[in-house]
Amino acid sequence: MQDEKKETGIAEIKKIIPHRYPFLLVDKIIEVKQEPVIRAVGIKNVTYNEPFFQGHFPDYPIMPGVLVIEALAQTACIAGMMIDENKDKIPLFTGIEDMKIRRQVLPGDTLMLEAEFLVFRRGVGKVKVRASVQGQTAVEGIIKFAMMESNGEEKS
Question: Which of 30, 39, 74, 123 is the most buried (most CB within 10 A)?
Fold first, then answer.
């Protein structure tokens, strides 16, 4: 597959991945490359209106670290789902390695979501991810996933 256009908005993202409100955590993709490695860069604008801020925490709203990790996974998913062989597949988490949460993410922050594939073979991938706010790392680590057939069977 050739490199995609420079920016992909929410309407196109919804055509690529199955996530929907309130669990769609990527607002736009500003870069996708398939060569020499699969890489994507996305943006999540964090607003006080996010539903998770009602309970995490009402007097000191912080975006849960697991949701930042999910936003990173969705960014990786978008890049992976743009590969022709993955059309109509469902990407599922299979593991997380060396994940570190280094900075709080607060309302008003703009998350830069970076995902770079380290390995992708036979429907199984390993992706180095990093979320940052104004150049400061918020979360970084490695996520693993497997592409599943829409009938629930692992792709081989």
Answer: 74
